[in-house]
Design brief:
Number of strands: 18
Number of helices: 2
Strand content: over 45%
Largest sheet: 18 strands, antiparallel, barrel
Radius of gyration: 22 Å
């Protein structure tokens, strides 16, 4: 930590002498205990922290330095499972993987020569088709269209939230020294009224080169986001279609996430399904853990700071394999201490019957997670 503080302090001093300084970040961390059939626990804890320092050189030009630290998830003995059963946590005793150093995560120079037009130079990260489902919100690991990809190159962003926003990026990828990636998307605002919104966002990601470092050369997809507000009833639907190749065959992915609110009552639903090549296992063809997922959660706003929800989840990692699916029933307690901050306390039971599966060894689980943006 002392090695980290000195360069950050020196960098901040240099920035401060030149321009206005802005520090932003987001923090995610959690803890959970997973109990086997003998009610013996295995404890796990993770954190994912992103920090950025922006120097505004003038009203149109800024430079940003990004850093990140994240627990390393491993499948070694002693590693626990998050609530939906897959090995996606770090054992609490695994200090080397749980506590990692802050690493340089990119630099960006942004120039706004005209209103609603930005030119970007440096390290650019993009994704498309993100989930709202609890544990798949991390676009570094999960997405319907494109998981987070990083390039060093050039980008253009134009438009605004009223009429629509377009993005175009091109540059050398982090996946291979012999590849160049091109990404483009445009969020088209078909409806933008005070009580009704409809946005359609097509996107494409294409990689060129002799060694691309990915299992797919391109992705296509479209996102649809609709919301409507009435006096007491508010509802929305988010739908995504994604296509990418796997060994010459197309993998088609579909996501539907409707939600509604009426007074103190809320209802959220997630359904995901991917059509894969049956001649191969599903896992290497997917950008997710499951080929099919269904989750539903009714919840009640007890106060402005507290919400209580009951969730049911059905997971099928590969629809061509029998008895690998599992179900989870749990309760969630949401606490909102202040703006851009939330805490979730949860517990639940896994109904998998196959004792040979990793998920079948964990029955009852409980834990907490926290998130903050600043």
């Amino acid at each position: 930590m002392r090695k980290l503080i000195l360069p950050i302090a020196l960098a901040a001093t240099g920035f401060a002498a030149a321009a206005d300084i802005e520090i932003n970040g987001n923090v995610d961390f959690d803890y959970a205990s997973y109990f086997d059939r003998d009610f013996d626990p295995t404890n796990a804890a993770n954190q994912d922290i992103d920090l950025s320092v922006t120097a505004h050189l003038d009203e149109n030009v800024s430079v940003t330095v990004f850093t990140n630290t994240r627990s390393n998830i491993s499948n070694a003995e002693g590693t626990a499972e998050i609530r939906h059963g897959m090995a996606r946590s770090t054992a609490i005793t695994d200090g080397d993987n749980r506590y990692t150093a802050f690493k340089f995560d990119g630099v960006e120079l942004r120039w706004n020569p005209f209103q609603d037009v930005s030119f970007i130079f440096g390290d650019i990260t993009y994704n498309a088709g993100a989930f709202n489902y609890y544990f798949w919100r991390d676009t570094d690991r999960y997405a319907v269209i494109t998981k987070s990809e990083s390039i060093r190159g050039f980008g253009v962003e134009l438009g605004n939230t009223k009429f629509g926003e377009g993005k175009f990026y091109i540059g050398a990828t982090d996946d291979s020294k012999s590849s160049v990636a091109v990404f483009g998307s445009y969020a088209l605002k078909l409806l933008n009224r005070p009580d009704e919104h409809l946005t359609i966002t097509p996107s494409v990601d294409w990689v060129f080169g002799s060694e691309i470092g990915r299992g797919h050369t391109y992705t296509f997809g479209t996102e649809l986001d609709y919301s409507k507000s009435l006096e007491m009833l508010n509802y929305s639907i988010y739908a995504v279609y994604g296509l990418h190749p796997y060994k010459g065959h197309g993998v088609h992915s579909f996501l539907v996430e409707p939600s509604m609110n009426y007074g103190i009552f809320n209802l959220g639903l997630n359904y995901f399904y991917s059509i894969t090549d049956k001649n191969y296992e599903a896992a290497p063809q997917l950008f997710t853990d499951d080929q099919m997922l269904f989750a539903i959660e009714p919840s009640f706003n007890i106060t402005k700071k507290f919400t209580l929800g009951v969730s049911f989840e059905y997971h099928d990692p590969d629809t061509n394999i029998e008895k690998d699916e599992f179900k989870f029933l749990g309760m969630n307690f949401y606490v909102y201490p202040t703006l851009n901050t939330n805490l979730v306390f949860w517990f639940g039971y896994n109904f998998s019957k196959d004792k040979n599966l990793v998920v079948g060894k964990t029955k009852f689980a409980l834990g907490m997670s926290a998130h903050a943006d600043f």
